């Protein structure tokens, strides 16, 4: 896996993934940023959310759950001192579908957290406390 980061001036950078996708990162105004992109730590949080969401949806599809919407809402706390690392992250899944089996949803969320989500497991190994929960919403038929 590779990435290339190119400085765009002030505290703005363009990041390109090895697969050819790019994203703009920018810093806050007090550091010269123009708010043209996400902060690097926001990208880390979004990456973790994407990683665990990918796992959960893959498992729910394999268990033939009729998911119509899946959203992960992440809330993170950071240390007050430098380095301002993540200290806590809570992931709340909202899974909507037709006749969803709660046991399947619970298992998918647990397996992602404990076994499959590389990003979550890496952050936990670094001392970040990560918690998960979920809610199930029935899609009106």
TrEMBL record:
InterPro entries: KH_dom-like_a/b (IPR015946), OsmC/Ohr_fam (IPR003718), OsmC/Ohrsf (IPR036102)
SUPFAM superfamilies per the UniProt record, alphabetical: OsmC-like (SSF82784)
A Pfam family the protein falls into: OsmC
Superkingdom of origin organism: Bacteria
UniProt-listed NCBIfam families: PRK10738.1
Protein name (database record): Putative redox protein
Organism the protein comes from: Paraperlucidibaca baekdonensis
Organism taxonomic ancestry: Bacteria, Pseudomonadati, Pseudomonadota, Gammaproteobacteria, Moraxellales
């Amino acid at each position: 896996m590779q990435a290339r980061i190119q400085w765009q001036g002030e505290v703005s950078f363009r990041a390109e993934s090895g697969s050819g996708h790019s994203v703009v990162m920018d810093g806050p105004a007090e550091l010269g940023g123009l708010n043209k992109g996400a902060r690097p730590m926001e990208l880390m949080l979004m990456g973790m959310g994407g990683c665990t969401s990918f796992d959960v949806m893959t498992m729910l599809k394999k268990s033939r759950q009729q998911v119509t919407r899946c959203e992960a809402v992440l809330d993170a706390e950071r240390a007050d001192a430098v380095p301002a690392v993540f200290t806590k992250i809570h992931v709340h899944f909202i899974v909507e579908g037709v006749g969803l089996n709660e046991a399947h949803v619970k298992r998918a969320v647990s397996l992602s957290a404990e076994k499959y989500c590389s990003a979550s497991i890496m952050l936990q190994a670094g001392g970040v406390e990560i918690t998960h929960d979920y809610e199930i919403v029935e899609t009106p038929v």
